[in-house]
Design brief:
The chain has 411 residues and is an alpha+beta fold. The chain has helices spanning 3-7, 14-17, 21-36, 39-42, 46-59, 68-74, 89-106, 131-137, 160-166, 172-179, 184-192, 224-230, 235-251, 265-268, 282-288, 355-366, 368-377; strands at 8-10, 115-117, 126-128, 155-157, 199-202, 256-259, 273-276, 293-298, 303-308, 318-320, 330-340, 345-352, 387-396, 399-410. The longest helix has 18 residues, at 89-106.
Length: 411
């Protein structure tokens, strides 16, 4: 199968594409129940509700009805004429579902399960054979809904965000062809071309402690229980870590992962580094303290913000960390790609003021449309320059929205 054929597969009726479509539909329904029984979904009402709805409607052949306004009315009880811009409940819920599905399939042992995906920009799920079966078949075949009849000549394009979200290692060869030449290329190529194995360094529990070049003196006596507590990570940081790991897998580039408290200065000198997390990652705080845009906080007022060194009195990008979760409306993040003068290695930073900003930073770094937006406002020859980008994300009912650029700096 050619590379172009793989990414643009013609939709075919179930009767043509599969010998026993009902068996395939039953397998999808069984996989849906398996996903919804996972803790990623059991602690929410909205995510299982929307995912079950779009899967069932697609299997029944009604995918044409899966539009944002229709879903808002039928799934979430909104008025049929409600404003989707002021109440983006469907978009936000779908975004969280995509992230949680990516986390689910990133777990070991999922290779033999049917894959249910919700592509970015669509509310129509896609169904795929297990990765192991696709390896054997050498031809991925999508499960088609009953009665589905496409328009003549219509194709389904598997976007790079689909590959990034799932982190499917089996697609690495074709993904390399698709990755380079996409808007991801100008930002990530200098990083991935750097010598050494990339390190993903994620923040730990709570506020970051001081970082050092060597392990702490008590590292030989720390108990197993103490170590477990030290290695607690935020779900938001884990989500961003998964998105970035999926990108590296799509590129076919080996990488390693460490928690900040277990990372040494020597580790940072061994290759390019991605620092995930803000206040909870001491290495992030060390690097940002030297740059124009950095994180700041006022313990007396619980206010945390992104400070511009050229205008320190400005606090446009501030958040009260004690705001009730469901009342928070906006968060911010710093994205940096710089050569650290201390290590002489390239470092990418994804650091939110709060957790929603970190998730938005991960989405920005792995979604071609956001990096394309950055390229449009960047100076010439920006690909090899150091850079910092400040992004904002709307937060509605405890869920982050799409990232938007509010400031950038290149040097």
């Amino acid at each position: 199968m050619s590379q172009r054929r793989f990414y643009e597969q013609e939709l075919v009726p179930a009767s043509r594409g599969l010998a026993e479509p009902q068996v395939e539909r039953d397998a999808v329904r069984e996989q849906l129940e398996r996903i919804l029984a996972h803790p990623l979904f059991t602690h929410s009402k909205r995510y299982p509700l929307l995912l079950r709805w779009v899967v069932e409607r697609t299997l029944e052949g009604h995918s044409a009805q899966l539009k944002e306004r229709t879903l808002g009315a039928e799934v979430f009880g909104r008025e049929p004429s409600y404003d989707t811009n002021t109440d983006p409940v469907v978009r936000i819920t779908a975004g969280e579902i995509r992230k949680r599905i990516a986390l689910y399939y990133h777990e070991a042992g999922r290779e033999n399960e049917v894959r249910i995906e919700l592509p970015c920009g669509s509310y129509v799920p896609e169904f795929h054979r297990p990765l192991q079966a696709e390896r054997e078949a050498k031809s991925p075949v999508e499960v088609q809904p009953a009665m589905a009849r496409p328009k003549a000549g219509r194709t389904t394009v598997l976007k790079p965000s689909y590959l990034i979200g799932t982190g499917a290692a089996m697609l690495a060869g074709l993904a390399i062809w698709f990755f380079w030449g996409s808007p991801l290329d100008p930002f990530w190529r200098p990083f991935l071309d750097s010598p050494g194995t990339p390190l993903l360094c994620i923040g730990g529990r709570g506020i970051a402690s001081e970082v050092s070049a060597t392990p702490a003196p008590d590292s030989q006596t720390i108990t197993v229980t103490d170590q477990i507590h030290r290695e607690y990570v935020a779900f938001s940081d884990a989500t961003t870590l998964t998105m970035l790991a999926g990108l590296f897998q799509a590129k076919g580039r080996p990488y390693s992962m460490r928690i900040g408290s277990s990372t040494t200065f020597a580790d940072l000198r061994s290759g390019p580094v991605v620092l995930v997390g803000g206040f909870n990652n001491g290495w992030t705080m060390r690097l940002l303290s030297q740059l124009r845009y950095h994180l700041a906080r006022d313990p007396a007022t619980n206010v945390e913000w992104i400070e511009d060194r050229t205008n320190p009195a400005k606090r446009d990008w501030a958040v009260d960390s004690q705001t009730p979760n469901l009342k928070l409306t906006e968060d911010y993040a710093i994205i940096s790609r710089v050569t650290d003068p201390a290590t002489e290695r390239m470092v990418v930073v994804a650091a939110g003021v709060l957790q929603y900003g970190t998730i938005a930073a991960g989405e920005f770094l792995t979604n071609p449309k956001y990096l394309e937006a950055l390229a449009r406002q960047a100076p010439s020859n920006w690909q090899r320059k150091n850079m910092q980008v400040v992004i904002a994300t709307k937060v509605i009912n405890g869920n982050s929205g799409p990232p938007s650029i509010v400031a950038s700096y290149f040097w």
